[in-house]
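wait is this the right file?? whatever heres the structure
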């Protein structure tokens, strides 16, 4: 069992399960509090941060759909998913994965006995740069980093290393769906840990990429900013209107 994060353990807020197409989505007034109570109890948790692109990919890819169905928490990380829920009269606010991951790092960083955190993913040096930003903020944090470009034998060594370290939180930034598959394959090595696929969050914390300005985020236009910054995404983003259409008519 992990050391408790806070002196006063508060009960977890309720979680309601709904669906987006055939995928689960969880509704909650405070996701970070829900996950914190699992961290305190040492209950292993796989968190998927669902957006429209991932939902459409899972719609075409049974293997990804299965991983999402087996996750413990699926949060609406994307304007499209929130729109889908709104159409069905669920007023759930967006839960960006990067913000949920930051709240968990902060909870561990301010705990009486902070546990270990792993940052796995991104180009060599990036995870370490991101970790340093967090260590500067919370000096008690122990963050171990590994870049996301390992060959097979290095990847096997890393999985073994994880099993010996038993970190409390494992943030995996390998991109969708690679990070979801990797977590599903490896979570048995650290059954008490919280695992989150964080996409490009390590790049953002390291200062290599920028998040969309707040006004774009607040107007559900983060996708537009990503397209502007990374035009190569246009093909992947063609699924967004398809998602909107399916959300309206399915
Ligand atoms: N990445 C990685 N290993 C790979 C492929 C990608 O570590 O084999 C990293 C990449 O360097 C980047 C992240 O995965 O840091 C993907 O970020 P992106 O914003 O594209 O994530 P997504 O849009 O899929 O959530």
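ok assuming it is, sequence goes like this
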């Amino acid at each position: 069992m992990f050391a408790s994060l806070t002196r006063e353990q508060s009960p977890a807020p309720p979680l309601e399960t709904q669906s987006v197409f055939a995928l689960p989505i969880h509704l909650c007034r405070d996701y970070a509090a829900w996950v914190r109570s699992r961290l305190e109890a040492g209950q292993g948790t796989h968190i998927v941060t669902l957006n429209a692109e991932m939902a459409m990919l899972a719609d075409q890819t049974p293997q990804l759909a299965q991983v999402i169905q087996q996750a413990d928490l699926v949060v609406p990380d994307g304007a499209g998913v929130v729109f889908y829920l709104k159409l069905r009269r669920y007023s759930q606010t967006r839960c960006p994965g990067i913000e949920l991951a930051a709240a968990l790092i902060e909870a561990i960083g301010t705990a009486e006995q902070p546990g270990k955190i792993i940052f796995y993913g991104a180009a060599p040096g990036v995870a370490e740069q991101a970790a340093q930003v967090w260590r500067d903020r919370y000096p008690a944090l122990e963050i171990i980093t590994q870049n996301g470009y390992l060959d097979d034998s290095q990847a096997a060594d890393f999985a073994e290393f994880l099993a010996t370290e038993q970190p409390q939180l494992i943030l995996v930034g390998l991109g969708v769906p690679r990070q979801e598959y990797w977590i599903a394959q490896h979570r048995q090595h650290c059954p008490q840990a919280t695992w989150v696929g964080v996409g490009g969050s390590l790049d953002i914390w390291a200062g290599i990429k920028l998040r969309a300005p707040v006004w774009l985020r607040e107007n559900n236009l983060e996708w537009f900013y990503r397209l502007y910054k990374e035009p190569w995404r246009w093909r992947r983003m063609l699924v967004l209107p398809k998602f909107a259409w399916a959300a309206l008519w399915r």
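The chain has a mean pLDDT of 93. so i think its the right one actually
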